[in-house]
Every structure is written in C-alpha cells, then in structure tokens.
Amino acid sequence: MIRAVIFDMDGVLSDTERLHIEAEQRQLRHFGIDPGVLASGAYMGVPDREFYTAIFREHGVVADIDAVVAEKWRLIGACPDEQIVAVPGALALVERLHRRGLPLAVASSSPPAFIERVLGCLGVRDRLAVVISSTEVARGKPAPDVFLAAAGRLGVAPADCVVIEDSVNGILAAKRAGMRCVALVSGDRARSEGADVVVGDLARLTDEMLLAG
C-alpha cells in the first residue's frame, strides 16, 4: 500500500532541469567538449562531482572539479527568481496529495540551498515533510541512497513509497530502493525503462495511477 510520495525536483516539480543543461553546455564548450554528449540523458540526475569527473575522464580533460562545480552553481544562481517556475500540473498535484494527508518529500541531486530556493519560489515548502539532497548521502543517483534516506525520515517503509522521476538514473535509484516509480517523460520513452507508470503530463497522473500497488 502506498503511504508516501517522493518527488524529484528538477524537471518534475520545477522547470529547472534546463538551468542545469544550459550551465553544463556552457562549461563543456569551454573545455572543448561537444555538449551533444548530454543529449542521451545518461547523466541526468547524477551528482555534479560524479558527472564532471566522468565526462572529463572520458575526454582527457584535467580540471579542478570543485572549481567547475562551483562555477556551475554560480551560473545557475544568477537565474532570477521569476524564471524558476513549476512544471505544468505539479502544484495542483502537490496540493491534491497534501489534502489526502499523504506525507510528501523531495529527494534531489541539487544542493540544499538551491532546493530550498526553488521550493520557496514555487510556494510548496510547507507541503513537504522531508527535503533531502544527494549531497547528504554517501552515493548519488542511480544508487538508492537518497530515496532510502527520504523514506527513513518519513518513517515509511521503502515498499510503501512511490517516486516521481524524469531521468533514467532517478528511475534506477527508485527501483533499487524497492519503491514504485512513475516516470514523467515526454518524447524519448527509452528514458522511462523500468518505471511502473509512464506519463507525459502531470495533469494526466491520477491518484489511482500514482498510488496503485
């Protein structure tokens, strides 16, 4: 029985995945790497240090990873609040689930300060019982750590949680945590492999689809 809902943030609650992509594309170009490597979505949801370490190793680039990550977040942080908006259907879904009395959580690969900023801009922070970043656990997605930690803080067994994700790595993490998973994917359905339910629009996600199982 599903007793709690865990949201990814970037690309699920907030239309901020584009900020990550724009910053990463800019940085990859700076290091002479074709930003087309991001197109497959293979690195979506992966923590920054792991992403840059892997991509630089693959392309023979030597760089200060901490400095690169800091620069990414300087670029993203320059985005004005009014450009941080909700994914269509997200706010109505959060409100509907909150009214049902379901405990809600966010488990994101973004750093805590950015998560808090985004949730504040969306006006949903008070609807969330737990907010956790992958930076607070040993391993980021696709490892299950952040979702297991969210379930632990909610006081709900992993098998009684459902995750809403938009990335291959997030879906893998949710399933490895033993949780039901809804994939929010439009277009490239290969990104939804392993999910229990696939939707292209949160407005079409019914409570029955979300909470079954």
Q: Top keywords for this entry?
A:
213 residues; Rossmann fold; 2 domains
How would you describe what is shown here?
This protein is α/β, with parallel strands linked by helices. It folds into two domains: 4-16 and 83-211, Rossmann fold, CATH 3.40.50; 17-81. The protein has helices at residues 17-30, 48-58, 65-77, 90-99, 112-122, 145-154, 168-176, 207-211; strands at 4-7, 104-108, 130-133, 161-165, 180-184, 197-199. The chain has a six-stranded parallel sheet with strand order 3-2-1-4-5-6, with helices on both faces. α1 (17-30) crosses α3 and α2 (48-58) packs across α3. It is globular, with a radius of gyration of 17 Å. The relative contact order is 0.18.
**What count of structural domains?**
2
Strand content: 5-15%
Q: How would you state the average pLDDT, rounded? A: 94
Provide the gyration radius in Å: 17 Å
From N to C, what is the helix and strand string? EHHHHEHEHEHEEH
Strand order of the largest sheet: 3-2-1-4-5-6
Structural class, by secondary structure, is alpha/beta
State the CATH architecture of the largest domain. 3-Layer(aba) Sandwich
Shape: globular
Q: Outline the low-pLDDT stretches.
A: none
Share of helical residues: 25-40%
- Provide a count of the helices: 8
Q: Major sheet, described briefly? A: 6 strands, parallel
CATH superfamily label of the largest domain: HAD superfamily/HAD-like
